[in-house]
Amino acid sequence: MADAFVDLRSDTVTRPTPGMREAMASAEVGDDVYGEDPTVNALEAEVAALFGHEAALFAPSGSMANQIALQLLVSPGNELLCDADAHVVTYEIGAAAAYGGISSRTWPAVGADIDPEAVAGMIRPDGYFAVPTRAIAVEQTHNRGGGGVIPLATLRELRRVADEAEVALHCDGARIWHAHVADGVPLVEYGQLFDTLSVCLSKGLGAPVGSLVVGSAEKIERARLIRKRMGGGMRQAGILAAAGRYALAHHVDRLAEDHARAARLAEAVAPFGVLATAVRTNLVPLDLTKHALDARALAAAARAEGVLISVLGPRTARLVTHLDLDDAGVTHAATVLTRLLAA
């Protein structure tokens, strides 16, 4: 997208920084399908250690990382529980059913405000001619929940619920880095609560591609077979892994800047009654149910003035701050959006 646009559609639109490009260009590489790419191996070991797990696996996308993890936890014909707006059942094109033979059942969409006891009441044990529950999945931060952060206390209760029911707990941690920065919870503390995690390097951290599955050594060994089966085996992938390693070293702490800029945008649109929820991280959700403009009309009008926003539904839009957005861009976007919303 041309530099003339202020792009608030997603934090995936960023471009590699000069330092990241240099790291990619100089990366030591090998054939990762043979396990011989030293940069990939280093990235996997680093991410596993960050979350206190034994191993990790580099995958081309967050969707693939999630689906690999779910197949590790839920065998065909068994059940996954998650919320109705979860990425794994909303934006992954039915992959759990299509590739894993997994049946999914959801609790009502509440974003980060999960009631662990309500989840506990949904778990189905073996027998009774019902599909047994094998895993629970949560999303940290929650995309369609406006970048909400699930409190650590809630996650600990979900871990207790999962243990008592003898089911697994998965974290779609595409933006877990944002939760870490927002609440100050160490990544290793998040990691110890989950059997598997998927973590993304291209949402917020600025890498051009890539996510990782995190888990035990035994799970990650099986994950390599699933990745290969799904077409995710890569060769000299160290060029991409180097971008991820650079992002982890340079772009995590700076997420606080994105959070501050998102708060500025939220403050600008709040007087018009369209802010869907309190803004905690880098996502600003807009609920246009009671506004004269619908989401497509607002997006079209904003585009005409050089601001790109995401349309999530007929009356739902979203603004996302990121590495390539500076204070001047926020000021311009706030000026345009407030004028359009006030009209």
TrEMBL record:
Organism superkingdom: Bacteria
Record-annotated membrane-spanning stretches: none
GO molecular function, one term: L-allo-threonine aldolase activity
Cofactor(s) of this protein: pyridoxal 5'-phosphate
Keywords: Lyase, Pyridoxal phosphate
Keyword Lyase: yes
ATP-binding listed as a keyword: no
Example of a GO cellular component annotation carried by this entry: cytosol
Entries under Pfam families matching the protein: Beta_elim_lyase
Aromatic amino acid beta-eliminating lyase/threonine aldolase domain mapped to chain residues: 7-284
Family: Belongs to the threonine aldolase family.
Name listed for the protein in its UniProt record: L-threonine aldolase
Natural source organism: Micromonospora coriariae
Taxonomic placement: Bacteria, Bacillati, Actinomycetota, Actinomycetes, Micromonosporales
